[in-house]
Amino acid sequence: MSQVTREHFDQDMVPCYAPMAMVPVRGEGCTLWDQAGHAYLDLAGGIAVNCLGHCHPVLVDAIAQQSQRLWHVSNIMTNEPALALAGKLKAHSFADRVFFCNSGAEANEAAFKLARRAAVNLYGPEKSEIIAFKQGFHGRTFFTVSVGGQACYSDGFGPKPQEIRHLPYNDLAAVSAAMSSRTCAVVVELIQGEGGVIPVDLNFLKGLRELCDRHNALLIVDEVQTGVGRTGHFYAYQATGVIPDILTSAKSLGGGFPIAAMLTTESCAKHFTPGTHGSTYGGNPLACAVANAVVDVVSEPSFLAKVQLSGAALVQALNQLNEQYHLFQTVRGQGLLVGAELNQQWQGRAGEIMAAAAQQGLLMLVAGKNVLRFTPPLIITPAEIEQAIGKLARAITELQEKAIA
């Protein structure tokens, strides 16, 4: 496909993205190569998706084997990889029941619909309010983007779904004042990823659980970005002592292959009877075969322990970088979901830094204009972390030199 270039995007694609100038063609581990053969150290990981890096041999083998057996049958029948995966997710979580779909947005859509359906069945149609949090992000469907707490993503599409209230994150008093008998669910990210890599306060999360119990509301935990090993726990809630009623999982679950899941309890699941919800591709054998392989690798205690060590090493390296260049106000996160918030001197320049890093062969992310976000493959090595920081240092030096010139 050498005749295909970046210019074809501008000619042929809907312009809802603004992709980089380079076009990646091959990946292995934590490295990508573009059409010109340039190598990039990947600390973006497909936006926290490629948990085992690019073309991990276990995943390549899983997809190769399943591709010769069965790809798709629809949900008029079940299949062996889906049943095996559901059992594994139950074994590694609080859940009694699992629903498969294709993306985090679809998993959250299912969660919000289930919460409202359960409330209608148990208490009547007036119990429909969903409480979410400012700067939250839950997907791009119209329902999920409306529940998300960033108006820049939901404005401009006409009337929004109603009975959604956005409150300040980590402000328990605000939630306590707002909740009522009309509240059917509270949805919370354990780390606000798109909102700036902001971890949940443990007392806030415990308070949400208590308030939900008091008001007969469901606690929905969005683990689309934090789930399947990202924080050094299989699911991040497992480090909190707080058990949700519904959990959503995607991104790392397929290691790069599209799959998502909504996990829930028996008492909640019974409100989704045949015909109330569905997904054409959800739980297809190909995706589930890959996800089974991901879960087998990531769920190993030694693997999760290594993620925690790698996360600590990345934070330490960023803090050491900060001692030299005085970039960051704070470095925060858990495991290998890390955000570095720029200080006053560098405010608004996250995108500029990301672009400069790419020129040095380092791929990373931003979370708004003031936070650098790092979501590398969970297999990243200490040597690769050191290389990444070196590339970032060169990018910063270049920006400083341009400013002086």
Automatic annotation (TrEMBL):
Record localization: Cytoplasm
Necessary cofactors: pyridoxal 5'-phosphate
Reaction catalysis annotation: N(2)-acetyl-L-ornithine + 2-oxoglutarate = N-acetyl-L-glutamate 5-semialdehyde + L-glutamate
Domain of life the protein comes from: Bacteria
Gene Ontology molecular function: N2-acetyl-L-ornithine:2-oxoglutarate 5-aminotransferase activity
EC number: 2.6.1.11
InterPro entries: Ac/SucOrn_transaminase_bac, AcOrn/SuccOrn_fam, Aminotrans_3, Aminotrans_3_PPA_site, Class-III_PLP-dep_AT, PyrdxlP-dep_Trfase, PyrdxlP-dep_Trfase_major, PyrdxlP-dep_Trfase_small
Residue list for modification N6-(pyridoxal phosphate)lysine: K251
Main subcellular location: cytoplasm
Pathway: Amino-acid biosynthesis; L-arginine biosynthesis; N(2)-acetyl-L-ornithine from L-glutamate: step 4/4
Annotated positions binding N(2)-acetyl-L-ornithine: R140, S279
Subunit structure: Homodimer.
Protein's UniProt name: Acetylornithine aminotransferase
